[in-house]
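Standup notes
- DV: blocked on the single-chain target, sequence here:
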Amino acid sequence: MGFIQDYSLVLIFFILPIIFVLQPLFLAKMTKSKDETNLVSLKRKKRLLYRQIKELEMEFDMGNVNDSDYQNSRNALKQEVSSVIAQIKSF
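- DV (later): unblocked, structure below
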């Protein structure tokens, strides 16, 4: 039982403060990876929006979508792509 108490004191007084001091070094790397993940997801969203615009244009060319719906949907998709591009450029 004394063996466990000795090592628990070592853990409390030496190892935990070292972890506390070194923690910011590892957190910087973790937040960087979150930013990279966010950038990748924004680029993926941009590609999907461009695909949706292409599909909408194909549907319009085939006559499945009327002119007013086409214009409204296309403008909404273009605005969304613009906001995604602005977010990408802010990185």
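- Follow-up: The chain has one domain: 2-89.
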